[in-house]
Design brief:
single chain, alpha/beta, Rossmann fold, L-2-Hydroxyisocaproate Dehydrogenase, Chain A, domain 2, 6-stranded parallel β-sheet, 3-stranded antiparallel β-sheet, 11 helices, 14 strands, 44% helix, globular, binds nicotinamide-adenine-dinucleotide, binds (2S)-2-hydroxybutanedioic acid, tricarboxylic acid cycle, Lactate_DH/Glyco_Ohase_4_C, NAD(P)-bd_dom_sf, Malate dehydrogenase, L-lactate dehydrogenase (NAD+) activity
Length: 316
């Protein structure tokens, strides 16, 4: 079988880490595209020169021409500005919509059969725009946010309980904004509901307080990194998260990953991209997995969905 091809649109902070991770894992040949001349060429040359040390055997090419993404199996889009301290992700909609419009046209023309994973912010709106412009089926255009949001929630829980991050299973729903919904009731450590463990440690009242603080930190985790970096946003963990999605597609692993996917009635949402658990395999976003929400969780989901809907309504 011919080697798989991964096109990365945007050669900035996340794009560079994505290229390196694709190479280290030998997911396929990599093309890194950016409009800045020399940037993708320089980054990919640097990565390729590590091949003899790391022992990976794939091609890593930088380009300013969309023609080079032809035949890509997967396209991951990070083109767009990151926010600065004091900004919300939604503040990026105007500038990043213009960038996404040209990117989606490039993908449509040169990689019409690709599975597209959007990372650019504001995430839910940028995925929507990318799908509208490419016209690709909804199962072939998704967004990365939930893998990262859930990973952050899982990390905070593991640190709090003093257990391995590998044994925490956490899930978030909703849009990639301050109203996202970390689902405490469905979060567990080796199958044990997380609140049981927190209550054993602290008693019921303090456990609820500790969990509320972790939920709040998860919702603000992107902003926490932005405030520290001052000149950009998180890039290692978003890249790892998108690679998990790309790998599940390329290997047809059918991993269940929180994904920004197009809903057609699931969770009571119709005709909107929003974060939910999705089976990702060779068919792209193959299936949305549903779960029962209680009244409080549904109210949080409704609030998050409304925020996404209101923002998407402003897209030209
Ligand atoms: N979904 C998530 O979980 C998540 C996480 C972190 C960051 N982000 C978002 O991802 C985006 C990228 O973040 P970053 O840290 O890599 O930013 P960055 O500024 O380091 O890189 C962005 C790159 O996009 C390029 N670019 C601009 N216009 C372009 C165009 N028309 N075509 C192709 N490339 C173009 C720039 O030259 C730059 O190299 C931002 O919008 C950020 O908010 C999303
Ligand atoms: O917070 C940001 O602006 C970047 C990204 O969406 C994140 O969650 O890290």
């Amino acid at each position: 079988m011919a080697r798989r091809k991964i096109a990365l649109i945007g050669g900035g902070q996340i794009g560079g880490v994505l290229a390196q991770l694709c190479a280290l894992r030998e997911l396929g040949d990599v093309v890194l595209f950016d409009i800045v001349e020399g940037l993708p060429q320089g980054k990919t040359l640097d990565i390729a020169e590590a091949a003899p040390v790391d022992g990976f055997d794939v091609q890593v090419k930088g380009t300013n021409s969309y023609a080079d993404i032809a035949g890509a199996d997967v396209v991951i889009v990070t083109a767009g500005l990151p926010r600065k301290p004091g900004m919300s992700r939604d503040d990026l909609i105007s500038v990043n919509s213009k960038i996404m419009t040209s990117v989606a046209e490039g993908i449509k023309q040169h990689a019409p059969n690709a599975f597209v994973i959007v990372i650019s912010n504001p995430l839910d709106a940028m995925v929507t725009l990318c799908q509208r412009i490419t016209g690709f089926p909804h199962n072939r255009v998704v967004g990365q946010a939930g893998v990262l949001d859930s990973a952050r929630f899982a990390a905070f829980i593991a640190w709090e309980l003093g257990v391995s991050v590998k044994d925490v299973s956490a899930v978030t729903l909703g849009g990639h904004g301050d109203d996202m919904v970390p689902l405490v009731r469905y979060t567990s450590v080796c199958g044990i509901p997380v609140m049981e463990l927190l209550e054993q440690k602290y008693g019921a009242a303090k456990a609820a307080e500790v969990m509320a603080a972790m939920v709040k930190r998860t919702r603000g985790a992107g902003g926490e990194v932005v405030a520290l970096l001052k000149t950009g946003s998180a890039f290692y963990s978003p890249a790892s998260s998108a690679i998990a999605m790309a790998e599940s597609f390329l290997k047809d692993s059918k991993r269940v990953l929180p994904t920004c996917a197009f809903l057609k009635g699931e969770f009571g949402v119709d005709g909107l991209y929003v974060g939910v658990p999705v089976v990702i395999g060779a068919g792209g976003a193959e299936r949305v997995l549903q779960l029962k929400l209680n009244a409080e969780e549904q109210a949080m989901m409704d609030k998050s969905v409304k925020a996404v809907k209101d923002l998407v309504a402003t897209l030209k």
